[in-house]
Structures are given as structure tokens and as C-alpha cells.
Design brief:
By secondary structure, the chain is mainly α. It is a multi-pass membrane protein. It is found in: Cell membrane; Membrane.
């Protein structure tokens, strides 16, 4: 029999659709209960709980925690809490780690203290450190009291670092060996484990003081002479991190060097933990989502089904900025009302100049923000990049401005109008290049995230600038 495996995305959508159908059936039966004169308890027990809810719970039991998290994020609050109540208690902690911050907040609010303690106690120290900032303080204290001394020390260590530092993300489960033993001894040692920490692609080699000396990849261990000493076959050129390093920089290093795991060492070189590729993938994804939200002017990640007022609070700040910039643009247009009244074609053409300038500026800004995020750009390079982007804007302006100029000449029978269109387009694209380089650079120099609101500011500048350039040139040369 040929088995055709579905794509992960298709399988995820199928699971969501099945859960939604089961919830709809449950709601339908509940509605029938309310409309009929029969004992509610008996009917709910026999029809809802024994059939629909049991089927829904069975479906949830078969899903990966990440898939359940995806489903919870896609459901409105009342259905989300129904599904959450059906999840087995021992899986609560894993799922809370997978859901978005906004949804996690709503789930935690629906749980009592003992449920939260039970969920947290299922997690390792590094996982608990991820969840602890979102838990009530009393819950964290109670969970810490149930940990042994080593786990408590690990948790306190992880909590002492900011969320964006390596120390907050490091995993304490790792395999370490001495350099003066043979490969055969290492293999026997590894066989004593019920299972190796996931993922494990290498073991870490340390000396008597716990100082990192190198790493021994498992693929190298398996093919090495069993009698060979670890110090003779280990790799000594190791990509290692310090706990106070930036997590985003570590994630970029994982991508650059194709790492699966990497050691974390203290100031004296002692091995204190490791980073894993799954954590680094999460860092890259979260940073990407954050940049996308920031460029749209959103303050933070938002629950799709968040209350209206919560969404308003998240969005109002940059909308207020946008309102001010739109008012400035309208006053620029108002200053040229006489020109627009005399040449009506200006009203039809000016949005083209502003729109193309905004798109070009956003392209430049995206390139600069990405370069800053990856550490590829320094402040000293700003002028060089500005000259390059000016050149791009000049060529694009002449090419596409000329095309629009010819079109304007053909539509309105005015060669001077076509020339003004070409000139305005070229100047606005050069303005967009200038703004696109210096806005994110200025924000970075001020210690702010260069992605925050950049697209809003670019659009505002190119709109006002485009209107002013086009209408100003038209007033000077066509009146």
C-alpha cells in the first residue's frame, strides 16, 4: 500500500478544521439543550460529554503540543477555553511554552494557582525560566520550593539574565566527558543513559576544573578507533558563547555555522550550559515577527481575538503619528489649491508620485534594517550606502519617471506636464533613498529598534515630499 504523507501545513489545517467541526457540533447540542424541556444534566452527560467532548479530547491527545498551540491561537476566546480545559494537565506546561505571549496570558488567567503550579512542575529549569516571567510571583516561589538545589540554582541563573541574552535561553541538560579517556569509555558511558538530551550532536570535553577544552561530535566518535583518546580526536576550534551575549547574535551564528548545539561558558571558560538549534530557530522567528510588527507600527504581538480596547491600545500610538503626518501632507496639498484648480490633471497624477516614492523608500529601509539586524552595517558606511541608494533612485526615477511622463503627455496633451512628472518622480525617489537610509540609521544611533515605525515614517515623508515636489514644480513651470 502506498502511503501519501500530507505536507505539515496541510496536516495542521486539517487538524484545525476537525477541531472546529467538533466544537461546532458541541455548541449545536448545547443549543438544543437550552431549547428543550428535559433534564439538562442527563442530556449533556450522554450526548455532549460522552460523544463530542470525548471525541475532541481524543483528537487533542494525539496532537503535538505545538499543533495544539496553533489551534488555540486560531480559536475565539470561548472555544479556546473549551479546548484548553480538555487538554491533559501534564501537557499544560509544554503548550504554554509554544503559544504566543498574548494567548498565553489569556490561558494563564483562566487557571487557578494549583493548576499553574502543576503545569510548571512538569518543565525543566530552562523551560521554566522561559515561562516564569508570565506566571504569578507566588506560583514561581512555590515551584522553586519543590526543586532540588541544583535545579533551583539553574533556574535562578537563567532568571538573572534578560530575555534577549544567551543566559536566559541556555539548556542545562548536556553530556560532558574528560579528555584523558578513550573513545570506548565514552561509548560505554553514553550507553548508561536511558536517552540522550535532545538534540545531541556532540559531547563536550572538559578538564578537572570544568573548563571547556573541545567538543567530540558523535559522528566522529562512532568511526574513531575505540582505543584512541578523546583528546586526540576531539575538535578544539569551538564556537562558544557567553551567557551575557545577545541571543540574536547567537542565532545568526547558528545559521552561519550550521550548528545544532553549542557550549555556553562563563568568564573563566567553565562550561555552564549549551544552546540548541530549536531555541535559536524560535529566536529567529520571534525577531522576524517583531520586525514585521514594528515596521507596521504595532507595539507588540496581538491576540487575533483580543478585546477591542486591548487592540486599540496596541495600535493607537503610530496611528496618532500617522494622523499628524497625514495632516501635514494635506496642508502641503492645500498650499497648492490654486494650481490644482487651474490644472485638474495634477490631482490625478500626484498620488502616483507619492505612491512610487513610498514603495521605493520602504525597499531601501528594509535593506538597511536587515543589514543593521545582521551586524553587516556600521555607522561609518552610511554615506557610502546613501550614495549608492541615490544612484538607484536616480536611475529608477529617470526610467519610470520618463515612462509616466510620456503617458501624462499622451493623456493630457502637455509636454511640459510630462517633463514635470519625470522630474518630480526622479527627485522623490532620491528623497525616498535619503530618508530610507537615514531614518533607521538615526534610530539605531539613538539606541532604538530601527524597525519600529520605519514604514510609517517613510510613507509620511515621501507623501508630503512627493506632493510638495510635484505641485511645486507644476506651479513654477506650468502656471
Amino acid at each position: 500500500m502506498n502511503v501519501v504523507e500530507k505536507k505539515p501545513a496541510d496536516r495542521l489545517q486539517d487538524n484545525l478544521a476537525q477541531v472546529q467541526r467538533l466544537i461546532e457540533r458541541h455548541r449545536l447540542v448545547e443549543g438544543l439543550v437550552h431549547r428543550q424541556d428535559m433534564p439538562r444534566h442527563d442530556l449533556v452527560e450522554s450526548i455532549v460529554h460522552k460523544q463530542n467532548l470525548a471525541e475532541l479530547q481524543h483528537k487533542l491527545d494525539a496532537l503535538h503540543p505545538a499543533d495544539i498551540a496553533y489551534i488555540l491561537e486560531a480559536l475565539p476566546p470561548e472555544d479556546r477555553l473549551l479546548v484548553w480545559d480538555l487538554v491533559k494537565a501534564e501537557r499544560d506546561g509544554e503548550i504554554l511554552l509554544e503559544v504566543s505571549d498574548a494567548v498565553r496570558e489569556t490561558l494563564i488567567e483562566s487557571m487557578d494557582q494549583q493548576e499553574l503550579v502543576a503545569a510548571a512542575e512538569q518543565l525543566d529549569a530552562d523551560e521554566l525560566a522561559d515561562l516564569a516571567p508570565d506566571l504569578p510571583r507566588q506560583v514561581v516561589y512555590e515551584v522553586m520550593g519543590s526543586l532540588d538545589a541544583e535545579e533551583r540554582e539553574q533556574l535562578q541563573s537563567a532568571l538573572s539574565y534578560r530575555d534577549d541574552q544567551v543566559g536566559a535561553l541556555m539548556d542545562f541538560e548536556l553530556v560532558k566527558i574528560r579528555a584523558d579517556v578513550s573513545c570506548e569509555v565514552v561509548l560505554r558511558y553514553l550507553r548508561r543513559f536511558d536517552e540522550l538530551p535532545e538534540p545531541t550532536d556532540k559531547v563536550f570535553v572538559i578538564d578537572e576544573a570544568g573548563v571547556l577544552k573541545g567538543v567530540l561530535p558523535l559522528r566522529k566518535l562512532l568511526v574513531s578507533d575505540p582505543e584512541a583518546l578523546v583528546e586526540d580526536v576531539m575538535a578544539t576550534e569551538v564556537v562558544a558563547f557567553h551567557p551575557d551575549e545577545d541571543a540574536e547574535d547567537a542565532a545568526l551564528a547558528f545559521e552561519r555555522y550550521d550548528l545544532v548545539t553549542a557550549p555556553v561558558v562563563d568568564a573563566d571558560g567553565r562550561l555552564i550550559g549549551r544552546l540548541t538549534v530549536d531555541e535559536m530557530v524560535d529566536v529567529i522567528r520571534e525577531e522576524s515577527e517583531s520586525d514585521m510588527l514594528n515596521m507596521a507600527g504595532l507595539k507588540e504581538e496581538e491576540d487575533l481575538f483580543a478585546p477591542v480596547l486591548d487592540s486599540v491600545k496596541n495600535r493607537w500610538a503610530w496611528l496618532a503619528v500617522n494622523l499628524v503626518t497625514a495632516f501635514v501632507a494635506s496642508r502641503v496639498i492645500g498650499a497648492f489649491e490654486g494650481s490644482i484648480e487651474r490644472i485638474v490633471a495634477l490631482a490625478a497624477l500626484m498620488p502616483i508620485v507619492a505612491g512610487i516614492g513610498g514603495n521605493s523608500g520602504n525597499q531601501t529601509t528594509t535593506m538597511i534594517v536587515r543589514a543593521l539586524a545582521m551586524g553587516q552595517m556600521q555607522a561609518s558606511q552610511a554615506l557610502r550606502l546613501w550614495r549608492k541608494e541615490l544612484g538607484v533612485g536616480l536611475i529608477n526615477g529617470l526610467v519610470w519617471g520618463s515612462a509616466l511622463g510620456v503617458l501624462a503627455w499622451a493623456l493630457y496633451g502637455s509636454l511640459p506636464l510630462g517633463v514635470v512628472m519625470t522630474t518630480a518622480m526622479t527627485l522623490n525617489l532620491m528623497l525616498a533613498a535619503t530618508i530610507g537610509v537615514f531614518i533607521p540609521m538615526t534610530m539605531a544611533r539613538l539606541g532604538r529598534d530601527p524597525a519600529v515605525g520605519s514604514s510609517v515614517m517613510i510613507t509620511a515623508c515621501t507623501d508630503s515630499g512627493g506632493f510638495f515636489i510635484f505641485l511645486g514644480l507644476a506651479t513654477l513651470f506650468l502656471m
